[in-house]
Design brief:
The complex is a heterodimer. Chain A has a four-stranded mixed sheet, covered by helices on one side. Chain A is an alpha+beta fold. Classes of the chains: A alpha+beta, B alpha/beta. Bound molecules: flavin mononucleotide, iron/sulfur cluster and FE2/S2 (inorganic) cluster.
Chain lengths: 178, 452
């Protein structure tokens, strides 16, 4: 038995989205958008959440689970209140991204995809996020909050310290984003 | 000077209100979309063909020819804009989406009219958290004005545009993987042929074009295909939006003539090298593309020149043996996605190569054995060379793994991993060998060794 339920708001969004696709293909085509909505609601997408999405869209649960595990933006287990994601790909590697990455791991005491003991911050290494010009870069997500439409660019030890300080105080340092 | 005289897409970049429909219209925007609704589809197609517009997503395929592959009298044709930009080093589409979303929408109306499309999609990278709401706003504004919907500009043309957000997977930038994803599945590429233009989204003819490709269309319609062709060189029309990152003073996104060379790009456009250091290597079009040495930077960063100019060395499988691209062709480099990465003399080329192959190993979708196994193996061997654990013969091993991937896979991700690897070995082999020479690797003693 599952105790979770998709919010009525999501049910409404599904119906609004449906006419955007050919009738016979709509259920399947909505799998990714609805998984994204479910992650907004629950903070992660595990088997139970996949089953909810499968039921809402009349899809086999195995299909939804296969999709959820294919895409990297779906967290398969709960993440901390803040999800700090840092690009270490080539554009940033040559500008010192691994120093910033090591600094975060050290200070938070976690590895890749690790969450601090107080459940506050999850740290992830990500691939290029199309901001390669401007020094090491991060994106931050806050659980159950709308996406934060900011890039945190030109990261060095000092800026990273400020970001980590803010997250530990329980707020997103939007003043450092662009 | 001189490089900035004409701009097609980027003229209003950095103007805060540029993304609003009112601003866009005040600068003449949407006139061409309105005109397109009253123009014969074949006439638009003829201008696009004449323009020599080539795809800006990576392959540089002529757009007008691609459109011509859609079977005549198709009942349903889809248009899908590839806004998945995830080729490391590339961030130009993100700027277009952020600063000029209406140029994309207007271009889509022009394309849809020519192709007979009623339903179009923009597949945007899931990670573009900042850009997705901006594009959605722009779409909503265009609907509110009656530019989209059942009667575009009051005509009998019906066009819906839907923004579809991906969820994190580099491979979804490959057009058939993108379609698999848009249909609601894993982003698995499909064998071509059939090409999407014949059998694409839900089995229907589908044109997949890059953001920048489409955003050029209003200008082409306004000034004529010939004018666009004249802006370019040879078989490549128009300008090119490039993103430049790495060790230069002024990283950023620039819209430039196709005649600009690598050296001009660095010195005149990007303010030279940081700290006055020397250039060591330049990746011309996203990490999939073979790297260039300082001696190869006098070649214009244009599709054909980068592929054929003899001042650029051929990529080799082993010293003296050119890599076979198929059909007797050899590989120099390609203009790719327009993502330029400049590396200075202090860059460790082995580490850089490792980060690139590591990326492809992470992003392989796993469908084909040569790609799945080969990229993982490449990353492991390059990593051990980088970490001073390399073994004698490792350089040849890396080359033979890469050569075994290239050309043997469903999609071009396999090539995208193999080509840059071979290019690094061809041009910076000494650095790999030096690391192996100073390697700390000790072969484990075998029984025979012990006995003797
Ligand atoms: C592995 C791989 C990744 C790709 N990623 C992108 C991408 O992010 N954006 C893009 O426009 N094209 C990408 N492409 C190219 C597309 O497959 C396709 O050629 C392109 O979108 C067609 O549009 P165009 O003709 O306007 O360039 C990629 C290709 C491969 C093989
Ligand atoms: S080449 Fe690689 S990414 Fe492309 S289909 Fe095969 S396994 Fe997947
Ligand atoms: S390489 Fe990190 S954002 Fe592009």
């Amino acid at each position: 038995m599952t105790s979770k339920q998709l919010s009525p708001e999501i049910e409404a969004r599904i119906e609004a989205l449906r006419p955007r696709f050919p009738v016979e293909h709509a259920d399947k085509a909505m799998c990714i958008p609805v998984l994204t909505m479910a992650q907004e609601q629950f903070g992660h997408v595990d088997e139970e959440v996949c089953t909810l999405v499968a039921t809402a869209l009349n899809l086999p649960p195995a299909h939804v689970l296969g999709v959820a595990t294919f895409y990297t933006m779906y967290n398969n287990k709960p993440v901390g209140r803040f999800h700090l994601q840092i690009c270490t790909n080539i554009g940033r590697q040559i500008l010192g991204a691994y120093d910033v990455w090591a600094q975060c791991k050290r200070r938070l005491g976690v590895g890749n995809h690790g969450t601090t003991e107080d459940d506050n911050i999850t740290l992830s290494e990500v691939e290029c996020i199309a901001a390669c010009g401007y020094g090491p870069v991060a994106q931050i997500a806050e659980r159950l909050k709308p996406d934060i439409p900011l890039y945190f660019e030109n990261l060095d030890a000092e800026r990273m310290t400020k970001i980590l300080d803010a997250l530990e105080e329980g707020r997103v340092p939007t003043e450092l984003g662009s | 000077m001189g490089y900035f005289d004409v701009k097609i897409i980027s003229e209003h970049f950095d103007v805060p209100e540029a993304k609003s429909l009112d601003y866009y219209e005040s600068k003449g925007g949407y006139r061409m979309a309105r005109q397109a609704t009253k123009t014969a589809p074949a006439e638009i197609h003829a201008e696009v063909k004449k323009s020599n517009l080539r795809g800006r997503g990576g392959a540089g395929f002529p757009t007008g020819i691609k459109w011509g592959f859609v079977p005549k009298d198709s009942e349903t044709v889809y248009l899908v804009v590839n806004a998945d930009e995830s080729e490391p080093g590339t961030f130009k589409d993100r700027h277009i989406l952020f600063w000029n979303p209406h140029a994309l929408i207007e271009g889509m109306i022009v394309a849809a009219r020519s192709l007979g499309v009623r339903s179009a999609y923009i597949y945007i990278r899931g990670e573009m958290l900042r850009e997705a709401p901006i594009v959605q706003d722009a779409i909503d504004q265009a609907y509110a004005k009656g530019y989209l919907g059942e009667r575009c500009f009051g005509s009998d043309m019906h066009l819906d545009i839907t923004l579809y957000r991906g969820a994190g997977a580099y491979i979804c930038g490959e057009e058939t993987a993108l379609l698999s994803s848009l249909e609601g599945g894993r982003g698995w590429p499909r064998l071509k042929p059939p090409f999407p233009a014949v059998k694409g989204l839900w089995g229907k003819p589908t044109i997949v074009n890059n953001v920048e490709t489409i955003a050029n269309l209003p200008w082409i319609l306004e000034h004529g295909g010939q004018a666009f062709a004249d802006l370019g060189v040879g078989r490549s029309g128009g300008l090119r939006v490039v993103s430049v990152g790495g060790h230069i003073n002024k990283p950023g996104v620039y819209e430039l003539p196709l005649t600009v060379t690598g050296n001009q790009l660095i010195e005149e456009v990007c303010g030279g090298m940081r700290g006055g250091r020397k250039v060591k290597a330049v990746i011309p079009g996203g990490v999939s593309m073979p790297v260039l040495t300082p001696g190869e930077l006098d070649v214009p960063f244009e599709f054909d020149a980068l592929q054929t100019d003899e001042r650029i060395a051929e990529v080799e499988v082993s010293p003296g043996v050119a890599f076979d691209l198929g059909g007797g062709k050899t590989l120099r480099t390609m203009a790719g996605s327009g993502g330029v990465i400049v590396m200075d003399e202090q860059t460790d080329m082995v580490s850089a190569a490792w980060r690139i192959v590591h990326f492809f190993a992470e992003e392989s979708c796993g469908q084909c054995t040569p790609c799945r196994e080969g990229t993982g193996w490449l990353a492991a061997v390059v990593k051990r060379i980088d970490q001073k654990q390399g073994r004698p013969g490792d350089v040849d091993l890396v080359a033979s793994i890469a050569d075994g991937i290239a050309g043997n896979t469903i999609c071009a991700l396999g090539d995208a991993a193999a080509w840059p690897t071979l290019a690094f070995l061809t041009k910076y082999r000494g650095e790999f060998e030096a690391k192996i020479k100073s390697s700390n690797y000790k072969p484990r003693a075998t029984r025979e060794n012990k006995a003797s």
